[in-house]
Write a structure and sequence with these properties.
2 copies of one chain form a homodimer. The first copy, chain A, is an alpha/beta fold. Chain A has 2 domains: 167 residues, 3-Layer(aba) Sandwich (Rossmann fold); 121 residues, 3-Layer(aba) Sandwich (Rossmann fold), CATH 3.40.50.1000. In chain A, 37% of the residues lie in helices and 15% in strands. In chain A, strands 5-4-1-11-12-13 form a 6-stranded parallel sheet, with helices on both faces. A 5-stranded parallel sheet of chain A has the order 7-6-8-9-10, sandwiched between helices. In chain A, helix 4 runs parallel beside helix 5 and helix 7 packs across helix 8. The two termini of chain A are 20 Å apart. At the A-B interface, helix 6, helix 7 and helix 8 of A face helix 6, helix 7 and helix 8 of B. Chains A, B: Its cofactor is Mg(2+). Chains A, B: InterPro entries: HAD-like_sf, HAD-SF_hydro_IIA, HAD_sf, PGP_euk.
């Protein structure tokens, strides 16, 4: 019965779409482990001549590193078909904001690589001095550099008090641009005990300290990500489906850009969430309600041999 | 002229109030430095027979340590007249929530001392393992203890990724109580370059990770702080003034509890803020609009000899 439903969705999307956009965390893998069957599905679509593009809000890896992770988990990819927020943030700063000065980064090496690729000077990546705690003299000694034109906040496993001081202090200048990669609350890990904080938690604390909201979001559901993909790919929204695990990012992104949307239950949204959505007719949730649902992308594997 | 206005406010409050509640950071001192003249004013009020109570949202110190700081900066005080959120949080957990298990704390030694004073077992204070970054295996090894009945979030200069993982993971249990000390965005330091993140930034990131709002706020403008003061002090709201530097905490606290309110411009609110308030008739701001304003508490020193 479930199988028949999955088959119906599969057939409809294969018939109506020439392009498949895949979110990664919680769709293709959980942590270091590929979702069983997902690779067979993605590779079948490619073999069938579908355009497959990976679109992740994850800011921890450059395009090159994402290609390597995709490949190692069974999803061979190329740089040009791989979009992450480390890349889109760097593109925004270079092509749209056209900054000449430095960028203060709360984030990690993935962002650093993409900024380096575009020749943008940056500071802040890696652990900061964690001895700066509530001692006021320490705080006043916390070094603030000149010529910082933007603060870019992404996922940072080294988030600390001194990083919040610096981000807040740079953003005191209203001309300093506040760029955020994405607003995901949690990273889906497929683990029952631990909650893993997402970039949204880091961005929000900077917002509170700075008393400002980001000037631009470089991930889904923001416009910038789609514009970035469109610059190098021929996308007909009518023939494109966004496959994701997060209603607030993936599904809203798909809807806002006129794409079909498919929600899977292996990440942020669980099978329970999916059931609840289907039973809920709250109009406020309409923007987050997918056209199609599927417990796991791997459920299609049987149709892909 | 300014002096005449200050004198008028002083005379009115001296005549109408028998109790003065003073916020501390940004009212009595900035960082390690007393506001010039503030001690003369506070000590004059005490000598004149006024009941003087210190009411701070700062969670970094126990009552005893606050008494020591007050005294060292020229404001001799006693434990019973000194209320901070480390104390009110511990009181809430003991007397109202009546917890028997452990409390996971994002906060520092001040909170630890007050929990110890009431015999409440706690964990989390001090730097956590900062090597837990985005490595999924590290995250899964992040130790979660049994029997944690509450998560208490206050100011923590050692805020880190592993602390956010733990807070979020404990709060996954809907029976685990989420207690926050206060929601202040910044600590007023009287320094022009550095922004100092307040507890609000730390609480908000836990909210995002946990997907929950705090069950209780233990500082101003919440009810709990006033109830705590009333339990040990005879307070007639009509004859009491709340003196603070923060409209959203101090002034709202005063208004909600029927007190007179006086805003000073030496902390979160600046003299510019005060001017703007007086010119603004937005009804949404009414709750934050003080009855009286004064550039600095020290402006009264001349009337206190």
């Amino acid at each position: 019965m479930a199988n028949a439903k999955a088959k119906k969705v599969f057939n409809e999307l294969i018939a109506s779409c020439d392009t498949f956009l895949f979110d990664c965390d919680g769709v293709l893998w959980q942590g270091y482990n590929a979702i069983p069957g997902a690779a067979a599905v993605v590779n079948f679509l490619k073999k069938s001549g579908k355009q497959v593009i990976f679109v992740t809000n994850n800011s921890t890896k450059s395009r090159d590193k994402y290609v390597a992770k995709l490949s190692s988990l069974g999803f061979p990819s190329e740089r040009k078909n791989t979009f992450g927020t480390a890349y889109t943030s760097a593109k925004y700063l270079k092509d749209i904001a056209k900054i000449n000065g430095k960028v203060y980064v709360i984030g990690n090496e993935g962002i650093g690589e993409e900024l380096d690729n575009l020749g943008i000077e940056h500071l802040g990546i890696g652990p900061d001095d964690t001895s700066t705690s509530q001692d006021y003299d320490d705080i006043k000694r916390c070094e603030l550099q000149e010529n910082v034109e933007a603060v870019l906040v992404g996922f940072d496993g080294h988030i600390s008090f001194s990083k919040l001081i610096k981000a807040g202090s740079y953003l005191r200048d209203p001309n300093c641009i506040f760029v955020a990669t994405n607003d995901d609350s949690r990273v889906p890990l497929g683990d029952s005990d631990h909650i893993v904080p997402g970039t949204g938690a880091m961005v929000k604390s900077v917002c509170i300290v700075a008393g400002r909201e980001p000037d631009v979001w470089c991930g889904k559901p923001g416009k910038l990500m789609f514009e970035c993909i469109q610059k190098s790919h021929d996308i007909d929204p009518d023939q494109t489906v966004m496959v994701g695990d997060n209603m607030k990012t993936d599904i809203v992104f798909g809807k806002q850009n006129g794409l079909k949307t498919l929600l899977v239950g292996t990440g942020v949204a669980t099978e329970e969430t999916i059931k609840a959505i289907l039973q809920n007719s709250d109009p406020a949730l309409k923007e987050q309600t997918p056209d199609y649902v599927l417990p796991s992308l791997g459920d299609w594997a049987d149709f892909c041999s």
